[in-house]
Q: What sequence folds into this?
């Protein structure tokens, strides 16, 4: 009887049961591997998404920086054009003799005052504020630039 039972289990039924157990264990292992693969894929997707978001943020910042630089360049250009117009306006003749005489003397007088103030400040007789230095520099700039433009016929 035992021999018959062993023959029965060792024959087709035993192999079938053993095959099912092995198939179950293989499926379980494949399932675990599939879950691990899905987790790794999710981590890779999250990392890729983070990189893409960072790239988009950097591109947006660069776009803003480009716009800021363009705006600053445009403002500088407008300031330079305005300065040139102001300087040109200092040499226009009005046709009124005393006004033209005043314009002819006031610019050199202001430039001389600016040179004296800056020189006295440099040798230490007194201290000019930042605004005073800016005023002296602007006075010299108008006088010297207008003379240079006048010489070039502008």
A:
């Amino acid at each position: 009887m035992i021999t018959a039972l062993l023959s029965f289990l060792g024959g087709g039924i035993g192999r079938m049961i053993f095959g099912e157990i092995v198939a179950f264990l293989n499926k379980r292992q494949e399932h675990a591997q599939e879950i691990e693969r899905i987790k790794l894929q999710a981590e890779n997707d999250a990392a890729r998404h983070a990189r893409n978001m960072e790239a988009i943020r950097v591109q947006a910042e660069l776009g803003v920086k480009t716009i800021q630089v363009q705006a600053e360049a445009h403002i500088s250009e407008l300031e330079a054009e305005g300065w040139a117009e102001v300087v040109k306006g200092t040499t226009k003749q009005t046709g009124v003799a005393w006004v033209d005489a005043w314009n002819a003397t006031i610019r050199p007088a202001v430039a001389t005052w600016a040179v004296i103030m800056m020189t006295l400040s440099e040798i230490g007789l007194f201290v000019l504020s930042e605004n005073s230095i800016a005023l002296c520099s602007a006075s010299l700039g108008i006088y010297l630039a207008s003379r240079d433009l006048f010489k070039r016929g502008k």
Summary: Residues 94 and 100 are 6 Å apart (CA to CA).
